[in-house]
Amino acid sequence: METLGLLLGGFEHALTLWNLFYCLVGVSIGMLVGVLPGLGPVAGTALLIPLTFGMEPISAIIMLSGIFYGSMYGGTITSVLLNTPGESASVITCIDGYQMARQGRAGTALGVAAIGSFIGGVAAIIGLTFLGPPLAEFALRFGPPEYFSLLVLGLLMLIGLMGKSVIRGLIAASFGLILSLIGMDPVSGAIRFTFGRLELMEGLDFVVVAMGLFGISEILSNAENQMKLEKPAKIHKLLPEKEEWGPTLKSIARGTGLGFLIGLIPGANSVIASILSYSLERKVAKDPSRFGKGAIEGVAGPETANNAHSGAAMIPLFTLGIPSSPTVAVILGAFIMHGLTPGPALYQNNPDFVWGVIASMFIGNLILLIFNLPLARVWAKVAMVPYQFLYPLILIIAVLGVYSIRSSLWDVGFMIFFGVVGYLMKKLDLPLAATVLTFVLGSQIESTLLQSLATSHNGLLIFFERPISGTLISLAIVILVVSLISGWKKRRSALASDFEL
Amino acid sequence: MMTWNKGVWAGIVFALFALTFFFLSLEFPYSSPLGPGPGFLPLWISGLMLVLSVFYIAESIKSKEEAGEPMPRGAGLRGVLFVVLSLICYLILIPILGFLAASVLFLFTLFVRETKWYSSLGAALAVSFSLVWLFGSVLKVDLPSGIFGL
């Protein structure tokens, strides 16, 4: 009951005129980012961070998280209508969604996706509301060794789940970690790796690195292939047929559960949630041959799962301060920029903030439902903005945004540099997410490691001596060993083969 | 004659990167009176990265098929280089011409590949002025003014 009271208090903050406005702006930008191929949620969120500098922290996070979950809705529209995923979590929706559109059922595909997204999203926020506080309370017992083990576990899960090669994943992770060490060391005050340049004293800015690695690199990849968009299919009749409601709702329920569970795992992103949901739907279906030919469950399940994931992904962020996907890592960067430390203490020190943001997510999902059911046609038109005119705008806003952080053209230069690095890393199949994650968590990784070792009598054994830390670090080692072995056996991971259906 | 695939080259670059940071880490104290010092983590991580790079090179030499996407050639490569070079020129021109003029030029260069010169110029002017207004006047960012003082 106490939680409900706190949540109601949160609505008081979220329902102020300005915060409602920022929520609306956030989810609209999220829809835009989702609808426009060539601009993903990570880049979109990073692009907008500079705009939030003058805002209250609560308004800033309301807006940025709106972009995150809003983009999960928007990505569906282009997948169904144009067979082009607006963002990667909707890749799988292309399969059956586009087939439905070709059969003249585009409206139904979008309608089902919107309803599923809403149910999945809201269920996940309810989970955040009720699971958050006890989890945060539990995590208050965490000391530096527990945190360090948790960070290692999250990182190895990301590498094990995402990449095809553990070696490449670990290289990408160490690369990010080394970059994060540049500048003044907060523990000892030593100035490291600045090559005598004053500009590097404060280290590389997170927005610069994230925008370069994700935003600029995405534009470079797109510059390579001329994007040609087809004419979108017509939308009519948004709701499924009477006999389809049963199976659809069942897939939505499965998608909610699956997406929610995967959202809790640090390192597992929404793409994994939607892909796993698709293969689950295929497995439980009576007639799996319908999949790929416009099966409604193939749209409902994955679309629900990626929204449930985006809500649930906020749970590890709010309670432990650990991001579970690149976009959440960017939001974590924004937390730090606004002087907030995500983690268990957040519930105690800034309850207004926490509950305000949670309440805004309920409101945001409602706005998105309206955007996607009656207004789906409008967004389909937005998707037709030619990319050739869009990318110069994205580039110039990125330059301005990065410049405005510290009024430094050096930062702009670094962003361009990291854009090229990110582009090459994509070409080499090195996971960018691992680099960004270690970069944003770098100082935390170092300080928890050093603090643990300083109090330890047995060196590294301290991580195994304490029960929670020992469990987490053993789990991390198991994951590392398993992914190394499966890599050596040259077997493609189950995820990769499912993906190539 | 076996040609090296791009993974080998990338591995060498990462190895050199790790080696540089490894030697730089030696300048910092490995331990302090309170425990490990500022040189501790950089040394271990760059050392680990060096070892991983060697594995990466070995993995790339052994594997027949290349990991990841092929590198761009022809028109694709030109497209990528065009965007990178425009960005670099833009960055160099901002302090000289000022933000406004440099942006008009930058946007015009990108737009004019796709459409007529007069619509490109109009769009470039409109976008640049609105952004200067948004960032300069509303968000109070101090934009570089350059030789024209604009």
Task: Explain this structure.
Chain A is mainly α. Chain A contains 23 helices and 2 strands. The longest helix of chain A is centred in the N-terminal third of the chain and has 34 residues, at 106-139. Chain B has 150 residues and is mainly α. In chain B, strand 1 (31-32) and strand 2 (35-36) form a beta hairpin. In chain B, helix 3 (74-97) packs antiparallel against helix 4 (99-111) and helix 4 runs antiparallel to helix 5 (117-138). The interface between A and B is large, with 62 and 66 residues.
Attribute tags:
heterodimer, A: 501 residues, mainly alpha, two-stranded antiparallel ribbon, globular, disordered C terminus, B: mainly alpha, two-stranded antiparallel sheet, 5 helices, 68% helix, 3% strand
Could you provide a short overview of the structure?
Chain A has 501 residues and is mainly α.
